[in-house]
Write a structure and sequence with these properties.
Number of domains: 1
Number of helices: 12
CATH superfamily: HAD superfamily/HAD-like
CATH class: Alpha Beta
Helix content: 40-55%
Strand content: 5-15%
Structural class: alpha/beta
CATH topology: Rossmann fold
Distance between the termini: 22 Å
Strand order of the largest sheet: 3-2-1-6-7-8-9
Order of helices and strands: EHHHHHEHEEEHEHEHEHHEH
Shape: elongated
CATH architecture: 3-Layer(aba) Sandwich
Length: 287
């Protein structure tokens, strides 16, 4: 049985492509780590609505632009295992890759480009700064001073629990092809209605609600298993004798050791049969 390819692959960012939560990193720098982490965890676990905590977290921290920019470095130093390799392999196979995040736009965009995602395929939350804070008078006509402080944020779809589906639909537009979304949190789970397959990710943190409700769940710290889910086991044969052969093989090896579980038995059977078909193609039975 053939496993259909998912032409459009949507990634969450924090705790999916990077092992950190950007807002929590800001809170730690401001000495507000515990307070903000509690709110983040409650929103990601589905215990509180994201819209009920988004403003509270930023107001508690009130970061400077320099502190927000520091998240760029933190993201790059905490990349989830094989994230860049999976993205590159998917693009080689003709997939469109996107990032949709409730994180802060400046660091998320730069991090996404760092991983190889086109900037026009990245969506996150823009901040506005109070230009009359910091030492603004020293260089009023030059680039913004790193000391200017957070003022407000763009109150859009990515700041509410059930908003990612809207962004998925905007990015898909009228483009043909099936869509897959992978993420760790409740907002990702709620966006599943806008895609053909939702994949829960527990490689950084396993959120019980997502584990229980996701049709498919990746348990490994590596994102490699996603490659076979998004492209299909048979399609990975196209990566033989290419720079992506190693990540392709790692994907299949991790799946063979239980890195993926299915809540949906039909999906489980379909994927298992696709694996067997692909294996028989590579290793045909002797006549």
């Amino acid at each position: 049985m053939r496993w259909p390819p998912y032409k459009h692959v949507f990634f969450d960012c924090d705790s999916t492509l990077t092992t950190v939560e950007g807002i929590d990193a800001l809170a730690e720098a401001a000495g507000k780590k515990w307070r903000v982490e509690v709110l983040t965890r409650a929103a990601m676990d589905g215990e509180l609505e994201l819209e009920d905590v988004y403003a509270k977290r930023l107001q508690a921290v009130r970061p400077t632009q320099g502190q927000v920019n520091e998240i760029r470095r933190i993201y790059k130093h905490n990349v989830v295992e094989d994230a860049a390799e999976v993205i590159a392999a998917l693009q080689t196979l003709g997939h469109q890759v996107y990032i949709i995040s409730g994180g802060l736009a400046e660091p998320v965009r730069e991090f996404g480009v760092f991983l190889g995602v086109p900037p026009e395929n990245i969506r996150a939350v823009d901040l506005r700064y109070n230009t009359l804070t910091g030492r603004w008078w020293e260089n009023p006509n030059e680039r913004p001073n790193a000391e200017i402080r957070y003022l407000d944020y763009d109150d859009g779809a990515l700041t509410v629990s059930d908003g990612k589906a809207e962004i998925v639909r905007q990015l898909r537009g009228d483009h043909p092809g099936r869509a897959l979304l992978i993420g760790d949190g409740n907002s990702d789970l709620l966006a599943s209605r806008a895609v053909d397959l939702f994949v829960g990710y527990g490689g950084v943190i396993t959120r019980p609600r997502v584990l229980a409700k996701a049709p498919c769940f990746i348990h490994s710290p590596s994102l490699a298993p996603l490659l076979a889910l998004a492209a299909g086991p048979e399609a990975l044969q196209q990566l033989r004798h290419t720079p992506h052969e190693a990540i392709s093989q790692k994907s299949l090896n991790l799946i063979a050791t239980g890195a993926i579980t299915f809540q949906n038995e039909r999906l489980k059977t379909k994927f298992s049969q696709a694996e067997q078909t692909a294996h028989q193609t590579v290793h045909p039975r002797p006549h």
